[in-house]
Amino acid sequence: MCKKLMILALMITCSMLTACSDFTISDMDVYERIHRYYSKMESYSATVHITAYSNKTQNEYIVYQKSVSPDRFYAKMSSPGMGLSVTAIEKNGLVKTFSEGSDSSVTLPSAEHTGLLFVNRFFAKYYASEHTVLTVSGKTDSAQTVLETELYENNPQVSRARLSVDNKTLAPTELLLTDSNGNPVLKGEFTEFCYNDTIDQSIFSAEE
Questions:
Q1: Which helix (H) or strand (E) holds 53?
Q2: pLDDT tens, 5-49?
Q3: What is the rounded distance in angstroms from the CA atom of residue 161 to the CA atom of residue 143?
Q4: Could you tell me where the beta strands, DSSP code E, fall in 92-181?
Q5: pLDDT at 4
Q6: How many Cβ atoms from other residues are within 10 Å of residue 114's Cβ?
Q7: pLDDT, position 191
Q8: Residues sharing a CB contact under 8 Å with residue 58, sequence separation 6 or more, in sequence order
Q9: Which end is more exposed in the chain, N or C (fewer Cβ atoms within 10 Å of the end residue's Cβ)?
Q10: Which helix (H) or strand (E) holds 121?
Q11: What is the model's pTM?
């Protein structure tokens, strides 16, 4: 209900602004398009360039994501140039991790912040939160909408998440996690994104 009221308020504000500026209603319509687009998303696959920030250092990773809503997540993460690869599978609240070339695995309860770089998990957090920010920037095909939400009120390490969405394609471009001071913790840059991709369900159970 609060989100619906926010949309209504944005549209009313937009109508007032058009009388005295070049701000148009279509600038705010993008929020509704994003909402409809991701509400209908049942699955996706993506290639994500991850930057992890810690102790004034940066580590780079490539992650191949696959997800089927609402609770199935697959991520294969590799470190460029090091030949290392780790696969994580989350299903029914449990996470399994596998190292490439090893038959060993470990099963852990799903932590609340596990997989926050998955787009559908971001939107679940965003629509459940009362502490959100929406920014629509630019009027060109390259313009983006930025959605930001609080993740954990009392967790200084991972406090907020910010997703950038291309206004033309509606595909995600960047997902940033920050600490309570606004410093970056993890940044995911989406280089490929396949909406409602056909995903082989066996990837979530084949290695059990």
A1: strand 43-54
A2: 344 344 333 333 333 334 344 656 888 999 999 999 999 999 999
A3: 20
A4: 94-99, 105-109, 132-137, 144-150, 160-166, 172-178
A5: 44
A6: 17
A7: 97
A8: 51, 52
A9: N
A10: helix 119-128
A11: 0.80
| CA separation, residue 143 to residues 5, 77, 102, 169, 198 (Å) | 25, 29, 44, 10, 29
User: Which residues does 111 contact at the CB level (< 8 Å), separation at least 6?
Assistant: 95
Domain extent listing, the chain? 2-9+24-204
For the beta carbon of residue 139, count every other beta carbon within 10 angstroms: 13
Which tokens hold the place of 54? 């810690």
- In angstroms, the CA 174 to CA 165 distance is 7
The alpha carbon dihedral of 157, 159, 162, 163 has a sign of positive
The three-state secondary structure class of 51 is strand
| Residue range 109-146, pLDDT digits in tens | 444 555 889 999 999 999 999 889 888 876 555 689 99
Tokens read off for 87: 């696969």
Fold classification of 2-9+24-204 (topology level): outer membrane lipoprotein receptor (LolB), chain A (2.50.20)
